[in-house]
Specification:
Layout lengths: L3 H20 L5 H19 L21 E2 L1 H14 L8 H8 L7 H6 L8 E2 L2 E2 L7 H5 L5 H8 L11 H20 L7 E2 H10 L3 H6 L16 H14 L1
Antiparallel strand pairs: 1-4, 2-3
Helix pairs in contact: 1-2, 1-8, 1-11, 2-3, 2-8, 3-9, 4-9, 8-11
Amino acid sequence: MAPTGTRELAHSLALLFRDCIENGEEGRGIIDAARLAYKLYDLSADRHPPPDPLSCKAGCSYCCHSFVAVTAPEAFLLAERFSEHVRDEGAMSVDEFLKRARPLAGMGPTARYDNELLPCPFLVDDKCSVYEVRPVVCRKTCSYSVQACIDGFNKVGGGTVPQDTARQTFGEGCSITLTAALRSLGFPWASYEMSEAVSVILRTEDALHRWTQGEDILAEVQSNVAVPAQLKTAIAEFSDAIS
């Protein structure tokens, strides 16, 4: 069980996310909650710099070929950001995104690794085209060794990528408390495969309104079944505490 101070902080964050969702106009509290999660994560990461330099830099995209799980608010924010810029010169079209996402449908984390490592549909010229609104899992993924990333990408050695523990903790805290807020309000709180969830939202008319009004348009999207039991327990604990 987490220390008392940590539980109290998590409880406060879950309440903050709940208030954000409830007070948003016309269902936009869902998207506002995702933006809030990113802001909180970035503030925490900035105030606790890693003890050693990270190897991550623009153009390094080895981790962008992995399974990415997102909450519904993150998926809606990604879809909105993509739609806002789809008419920009040189921007990817909706059809092109759907084409890129299609091969990933139904592929879980193990299948993604065991088979050909396919890139994220948002990856363009080895750079994230939605970097400003990238999911929490992408924000917290970092590496102290680019060689370890290369070995993992090439399936060599079987070692792990050395990452910053603080960033992992910040990211998990944001995801757990945001998910707890969704659960407390009766919204679906699964963790969805990103490209499938965004694809469904882009194809569905009035997707956000319909979802916030109780139509689970993401019900058929692949969810991340690999969520550890202790995280599910924490989500339930904080959700029940603010319900």
